[in-house]
Design brief:
Strand order of the largest sheet: 3-4-5
Structural class: mainly alpha
Helix content: 40-55%
Shape: globular
Number of helices: 13
CATH superfamily of the largest domain: NAD(P)-binding Rossmann-like Domain
Distance between the termini: 30 Å
CATH class of the largest domain: Alpha Beta
CATH topology of the largest domain: Rossmann fold
Order of helices and strands: HEHEHEHEHEEHEHEHHHHHH
């Protein structure tokens, strides 16, 4: 994700100092016009904006507390685009503010293709002032930059969105399997449902059935796209958040249960999350 984002900042005329633990990611960044930094602290050292994309809250905490806060100029806007728990996002924002920085949490929607194409949607949490400072940078990487509220609000929006996406994808998969077993042609059912009250993004834009609708990871044996392991991560974050505010989320909980089975017990973690249709009915496997 970060590789495509960095490339689009370069295309927009920014000088980008890049750091990653992956040699392959660094090579891609250099090929796309970034200057390579030896450490995260070096990358942040003279930045006007620091943009991070990291796997989990513990990584965000470590990077910001050891390599960003106190290393980047206090005039730099700090933008974390990782998807992490709300509590950590708020804690790091508070620590940044105490050290004199403006910071936003700005998780994304759209996946690798949107990151490469500069068409991400950013859900941004932070003060009005921090949002306005971050917006010109985010607009170079996305098609929509939306202020969700105060610190942590971007993360809240992201996990709620992905809980809805995970549950709706499972329902979409179940529906296509049932339709086929009832004798309906998949393309015919798509043509009907995509124009009826059952239509949703998981069907019309990201159909889990090979050869039906726009081209999706289903047409590549569920390779690429948004990995099931990442969907599971987001569903677990949603369930943790729901528990923290005593919110009843039975569909979200069941989606987490099913993706746990698909990603971990059945080894589907590296497949696109729409590949869960193969757990429901493996007859959709491309020949």
């Amino acid at each position: 994700m970060g590789g495509g984002m960095a490339a689009n900042l370069v295309k927009a005329g920014h000088q980008v100092a890049a750091f990653d633990l992956s040699e392959a990611a660094l090579a891609k960044a250099e090929a796309n016009g970034c200057t390579l930094a030896g450490t995260a602290a070096e990358a942040a050292g003279e930045a006007d904006a620091v943009v991070t994309m990291l796997p989990a809250g513990k990584h965000v905490r470590d990077v910001y507390e050891t390599s960003v806060i106190g290393k980047a100029p206090t005039s730099a806007i700090l933008i974390d685009c990782s998807t992490i728990d709300v509590a950590t996002a708020r804690e790091e924002s508070e620590k940044a503010a105490a050290a004199g920085y403006a910071m936003v949490d700005a998780p994304v929607s759209g996946g690798i293709a949107a990151a490469d194409g500069g068409t991400l949607t950013f859900m941004v949490g932070g003060s009005d002032e921090a949002f306005e400072a971050a917006r010109p940078i985010l607009e170079k990487m996305g098609k929509a930059v939306i202020h969700a509220g105060g610190p942590g609000a971007g993360q809240a929006a992201k996990i709620c969105n992905n809980m809805l996406l995970g549950a709706s994808m499972i329902a979409t998969c179940e529906t296509f399997v049932l339709a086929r077993k009832l004798g309906l042609d998949p393309q015919t059912f798509f043509d009907i449902a995509s124009k009826a009250s059952g239509q949703c993004w998981s069907m019309t834009t990201y159909c889990p059935v090979p050869g039906v609708g726009p081209q999706t990871p289903a047409d590549r044996d569920y390779e690429g796209g948004f990995a099931a392991a990442l969907m599971l991560k987001d569903l677990r974050l949603a369930m943790e958040a729901a528990q923290s505010v005593d919110s009843y989320t039975p569909m979200g909980a069941h989606a987490e249960e099913l993706y746990t089975r698909f990603a971990e017990a059945l080894g589907g973690g590296t497949k696109d999350f729409s590949g869960i249709i193969k757990m429901i009915d493996d007859s959709w496997t491309p020949r």
